[in-house]
Amino acid sequence: MLRKLYDWTMRLAARPDALRALAVVSFAESSFFPIPPDVMLIPMVIAQRARAWLIAGVCTIASVLGALLGYGIGLYLFDTIGMRVIEIYGLQGKVDEFHTFFDQYGLWVILAKGLTPIPFKIVTIMSGAMRFDIPTFIAACIVTRGFRFFVVAALLRRFGEPIRAFIEKRLTLVFLAFLVLLIGGFVAVSYL
Questions:
Q1: Contact present, 118 and 185 (Cβ < 8 Å)
Q2: Contact predicate 190/89, CB 8 Å
Q3: How distant is the alpha carbon of residue 123 from its chain centre?
Q4: Distance (Å, rounded) from C-alpha 192 to C-alpha 186?
């Protein structure tokens, strides 16, 4: 089953409309969607290594635009949509604690959390709720998301074939590791 899913993902990554789908996923992930764009970014770069910088750029721009939506949710709709997203992650009891932490380390929270598998949407929503300085927020999102996606793209561009061979040979292990990271991000967010 994993082999079929992997093959389907690789075919999807090579399609002409893959960049548009990556942009949608990356945008949504920064504001409300639970699946990180790496699910598409990695196979797309492996399938089209010559387009690695374009793929990482689209992922970054869409993620920053999605972060602005998350910021807007936090700023204007925190009590409704923002709290609903936070409740989905089981963090409603930690909002006050996050406010205090964000007050002290706001920029560093954005920079650190943007690099990790911790759901970035929590950071973007809370940034809006805390009325964090918007130009600084945008700059931090560009730096942190750009760094994350361009490092992944650079590694895959440089070592694409060995990585692809490793993934294909150890597909179950790679899938389980990805699940551990994804679930670990959700668990880690509850210990902000």
A1: yes
A2: yes
A3: 11
A4: 11
Of the listed ranges 25-29, 74-78, 145-149, 158-162, the one predicted with least confidence: 158-162
Comparing CA positions, the residue from 94, 89, 125, 95 lying closest to residue 110 is 125
User: Alpha-carbon Rg of the chain, whole angstroms?
Assistant: 17
pLDDT over 90 (residue 14): no
The phi, psi pair for 185, rounded to 5°, reads -65, -40
Which amino acid, residue 72?
G
Q: What does the pLDDT read at residue 124?
A: 93
Average pLDDT over every residue of 142-169: 82
Task: Give the count of domains, the chain.
Answer: 1
Mean pLDDT of 21-41: 86
Tell me: pLDDT of 7 over 90: no
HSE value, Cβ hemisphere, 13 Å, CA-based, for 115 = 9
pTM over 0.85: no
State the Cα–Cα distance between residues 24 and 45, nearest whole angstrom.
17
Side-chain half-sphere exposure of 161, counting CA atoms within 13 A: 0
Q: Which domain covers residue 56, as residue numbers?
A: 2-189
